[in-house]
Amino acid sequence: MIDAAPPAEHSLPALYRDHRGWLENWLRRRMGNAWDAADLSQDTFLRVLANSHQLAEIREPRAYLLTVGERLLSTFYSRRSLEQAYLQALAQLPEQSVPSPEQRWVLLETLQALDELLAGLHAPVRRAFLWSQLEGLGYREIAERLGVSERTVKRYMAQAYEHCLLAEL
Question: What ranges do the domains of the chain cover?
Answer without folding.
Answer: 1-96
